[in-house]
Amino acid sequence: IKKIAVLTSGGDSPGMNAAIRSVVRTCAFMKLECAAIYRGYQGMIDGDFKDMTARSVNNIINKGGTILKSARCEEFRTPEGRQKAYNQLKKHNIDAFVVIGGNGSFAGGLKFNEEFNFPVMGIPGTIDNDILGTSYTIGFDTAINTVVEVIDKIRDTASSHNRLFFVEVMGRDVGHIALNAGVGAGAEEILIPEQNLGLERLLESLKRSKKSGKSSSIVIVAEGDKTGKNVFELKDYVEEHLPIYDVRVSVLGHMQRGGSPTCFDRVLASRMGVKAVEALMAGKSNYMVGIRDNNLILTPISEAIKAHTPVDEELVRVSDIMTT
Ligand code: ATP
């Protein structure tokens, strides 16, 4: 392997730039050539490449999003599209690539590897923390800190008006963001897809909290929760069955994906970038870099894309205790 390419694919997340920087600088350190691919697999197909040096990634470690842009690319799902991508990689003398992204991006990389026997390494970049084979994905820590900061602010206004707030947070099919930010921000209830407590329990809990003298309440709702009601329907339901609260809804949305990455995400991304390049140079392919017990590990992509990481049972228990 003489030349490695790096791309970001799927949804962006804070810390992706730190990972790009790490891959580029590790290549420079190891005297390898490095190319950046813009706009994910679409750019791979279009030949949107740029040679990188250690200096190409100055001053990006602190920036959210991805300087390489990200994209979703239907064409890469077809054999013809992947053939075009392969031709472009060959044309640019690229011997391996590192893809920073989520499950879909890894599935694409795996398929590509199977067809062309082309070395591929994955780095998990998503705020959802839903990828098997790593305790943390790049961007998750930044996202939960953003959510906690916003909930603290919502609490200020909620307690000034004796209000109940339903705050919807991202996380797709899993409740990692909701659970962690909920515990961190001291939410009264946390509704996550992994644990459907039912609407009765929600009403009971809110009643109890009002009786115990709480003037305001914050309920965190994961976007994938299984109550069968969205946040606005939850508001209507609670107002109808428990007319003691003035209920408001706040859907946090894409602000959760932006912002300058936390130190944790920058360090994680830097470590994962080094590991990805070193693993490729050691002859490994089709793995995703992950972290467990503060050690970097490699998980076959085929395993990583099989399922979502379950939420931490111990944290669910802590959250139950904290919300009594
Ligand atoms: P996130 O879900 O965090 O936004 P992701 O990487 O899972 O990130 P996707 O949109 O699922 O995002 O996938 C990114 C791109 O990967 C797709 O647009 C497509 O080009 C490619 N891809 C996904 N699945 C496959 C597949 N089965 N075969 C080939 N390519 C795929």
UniProtKB/TrEMBL annotation:
One of its GO terms (molecular function) is ATP binding. ATP binds at G11, R72, C73, G102, N103, G104, S105. It catalyses: beta-D-fructose 6-phosphate + ATP = beta-D-fructose 1,6-bisphosphate + ADP + H(+). Its cofactor is Mg(2+). One of its GO terms (cellular component) is 6-phosphofructokinase complex. One of its GO terms (biological process) is canonical glycolysis. The active site is at D128. It is found in: Cytoplasm. Mg(2+) binds at N103. It is an enzyme of class 2 (transferase). Belongs to the phosphofructokinase type A (PFKA) family. ATP-dependent PFK group I subfamily. Prokaryotic clade 'B1' sub-subfamily. Homotetramer. This is ATP-dependent 6-phosphofructokinase.
